[in-house]
User: What shape does this take?
Amino acid sequence: MNLYQLSSQSLQFPDPSLALDEPNGLLAIGGDLAVDRLNIAYRQGIFPWFSPGEPILWWSPNPRAVLFPDALHLSRSMKKFLKRHPFQATLNQVFDDVIHACAHEHHDGTWITADIISAYRQLHRAGKAHSVEVWQDGTLVGGLYGVEQGSIFCGESMFSRADNASKYALLVFQQHFTRHGGKLIDCQVINAHTASLGVCEIPREHFLQQLAQYRDIPAAEGCWLPQPLPAPTL
Assistant: This one.
């Protein structure tokens, strides 16, 4: 297994095509989680993912899990649920609370370590990481966070403390992002939950082509301002 060792003196990453097949997408090791390095990584379709006690590991899996703007799927029961269940959603109101809640959601083996939380808080302050919050009677019950790359949003994690709250976060955000010119939501690796919502897999090469096409085209003005998000259109 040949892994590229990142240099502390350089922000350069290897080409994602050099990532391992097994484990799928493992590309490099080392470096740090500085804002500049994270920005460069995401621009190339690379993200950090590692467990406590491990060195920083960098990934670019093939295939790549993505959600296209018109592909979000809601079951009939989910539509009925949303019509009768009063949630409210906001954008970029309590990023710190969301990332800590995502870490707690995966407490049995979280990759959202203290170092990750610190790094993405800095990325948020730099205007690149964003959160969606779902509220019920004034209590935070769900949400998600991720990293913006122009007209592509790279989802990192979500959490839910009430039935369907994370699905609501994704639905409301997807409609908001699309209204502001968003082209694609990157979900990194597919799972049963995201697949049920319409997430699909595409070859890494195709994802990187989309990323190169849209990463320098910003979403419309006002997209990332802290704001309430309207209820979704069902």
